[in-house]
Structures are given as C-alpha cells and as structure tokens.
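Field log, afternoon session.

UNIT: design team B
ACTIVITY: writing a sequence onto a fixed backbone
BACKBONE:
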C-alpha cells in the first residue's frame, strides 16, 4: 500500500511538472496532511492548493513587472514627506497611485527644480502601477535617446518601438537636463506622439514650458510635443527648495555632537548631484 502511494506521488509530481503547477507540486502533500487532520473534503483541498498556486503566480508576476520597469531605486509614497512639499497635493498623489489615469490613458507631468522630489514621486507611483498589474518602464530621457539612436543605427527601431507600445506606463525622467540633438528630438517626439491616447506617459522636468524649445530645438516640434503631452494631463508642481539641500542644511544646523560638525558639512556637500547642482532654473 505504502509503495503504491509513493508511486502515485511520484507520478503526480511528474504530471504537475508537465502541467506547470510548481507550487501545487511543492505544497500538495503538506496541505493534504492538514486537510486529513482537519477533515476537509476533496473540493476544499483542491481549492486550497489552487489558491496557493495562483497567489505564487501573482507574486512572481508582480516581481517580474517591477524588475522589467527598471526603477533606478526604491522609493515609496509612505517615505515622501508631504509637509515639506506643500505644493504637492497628497490627495491627488494617492489618487494617481490607484492608477485610474493609466486606464484613461492620461499623462502626468511633474515640474520643479532639482531635488524637489519629482523622481521620488515618479518611482513610487511606478511601483504602485507595477503592483496593480500594469506594465511600466522607467527611462531617463538621455538613456531613452541613446537607445533610440542606437536602435535606429542598428535598424532595430521597429522592435524597440513595438516594445514601448506594449507598455501601460512609460516614464521619461529628467526631460530638459541635456538638450537633444535634432535626430534625438525627432525620435523623442515620435515616442510621445505614438504614446498619445494609447500609453500613459509620466514626465519629469525642471523646465517651464516656455523653455522646452531649448531642449527640443524647433518651435514647431516643441509645440506639437507639448500639445500631445499636456492634452489630458495632470500637472504637479514641486515648488520650493531642494530637499537634499534642506536636509543637508538641517544637518549642519543641528549636529548631533560638536565632533560631528565637520562630518555634517561634508554630508551637506555630498548629496548635491553635480549635474543637478541645486541650481535654480525656473
Ligand atoms: P528631483 O527628481 O526633483 O531632482 P528627487 O526625487 O531625486 O528630486 O529627490 C532628491 C532626494 O530627496 C531623493 O533622495 C528623495 O528621496 C529625497 N526627497 C525629495 N523630496 C522629498 C520629500 N518631500 N520627502 C522625502 N524625501 C524627499
Ligand atoms: Mg530627478
């Protein structure tokens, strides 16, 4: 009897592998023992192991979506200090985290000086979208432009465009730090106009609209880009001083002990990104 049982268990594991049900394979014996001691019927047992398989699949899929989004770091809305950034409406951000804007194919534009939390909010909202089952991809604009230009040179642009078209949310971080070349601006416009009413865009920039021509080159292209981007768009302004700078200044003002003074001054200098520089551009 025992031999027969172990034979059928081996066969069962074989079938479960062929059916690609790894979690049921891993858990079925343990749950069967529990079901026997609880006196659960067969259907309840089947339901329990199917639920385990489904939960594990959802967990893995969410993990994969987060990895595919290529977020540059981990940030959450819980760690965002809204009192330090009163121009940012917490209710609106919580609403955006529910991702209905993605279903409506609307865009989000975050505008503000360097260090004011644009990337932080963008990463947190992207992670929320991944958790809700949306396909997200985060790009710094310079990185996307390099990929687009390379793809064009290698004649793989169609493939890249097809991959972008499959996304639900495309993030373009740091528009405006580096002016795009003529080709770059045209390729970027192509991405933005292809996404129009099909894929939501989330764009961060330190530039007010009137300065976008400096980045995109031609006024015609800037007008057309802004037209598509801002039609059905939530605009979030992160006004005020850089959080990094404020944080650093607070550390200088309140050193833990007198010996910490030099260290605090060092810390004040360190977090200011040389590219972003804390320079006021608006
Ligand atoms: P930006 O993209 O506007 O230049 P970041 O989002 O990169 O700014 O913010 C700079 C740093 O300050 C990051 O480490 C970010 O987590 C932090 N930060 C910015 N604003 C806040 C805030 N309101 N609460 C908590 N951390 C913040
Ligand atoms: Mg940023």
């Amino acid at each position: 009897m025992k031999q027969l049982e172990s034979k059928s268990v081996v066969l069962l594991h074989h079938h479960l592998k062929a059916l690609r049900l790894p979690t049921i394979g891993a858990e079925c014996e343990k749950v069967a023992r529990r079901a026997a001691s609880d006196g659960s019927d067969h259907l309840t047992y089947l339901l329990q192991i199917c639920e385990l398989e489904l939960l594990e699949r959802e967990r893995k899929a969410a993990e994969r979506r987060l990895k595919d989004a290529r977020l540059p770091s981990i940030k959450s809305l819980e760690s965002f200090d809204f009192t330090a950034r009163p121009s940012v409406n917490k209710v609106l951000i919580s609403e955006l985290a529910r991702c209905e804007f993605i279903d409506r194919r609307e865009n989000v534009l975050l505008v503000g000086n360097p260090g004011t939390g644009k990337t932080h909010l963008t990463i947190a909202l992207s992670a929320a979208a991944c958790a809700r089952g949306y396909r997200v991809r985060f790009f710094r604009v310079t990185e996307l432009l390099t990929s687009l230009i390379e793809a064009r040179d290698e004649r793989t642009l169609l493939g890249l465009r097809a991959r972008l078209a499959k996304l639900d949310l495309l993030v373009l971080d740091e528009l405006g730090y580096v002016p795009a070349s003529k080709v770059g601006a045209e390729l970027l416009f192509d991405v933005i106009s292809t996404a129009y009413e099909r894929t939501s865009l989330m764009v961060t920039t330190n530039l007010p609209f009137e300065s976008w021509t400096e980045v995109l080159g031609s006024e015609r292209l800037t007008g057309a880009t802004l037209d598509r981007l801002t039609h059905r768009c939530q605009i979030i302004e992160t006004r005020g001083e850089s959080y990094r700078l404020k944080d650093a200044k607070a550390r200088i003002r309140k050193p833990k002990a007198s010996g910490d003074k030099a260290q605090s001054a060092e810390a004040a200098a360190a977090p200011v990104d040389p590219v972003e520089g804390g320079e006021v551009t608006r």
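LOG NOTE: Strands lie at 107-112, 136-140, 169-175, 200-205, 233-238.
NEXT ACTIVITY: expression trials, pending approval
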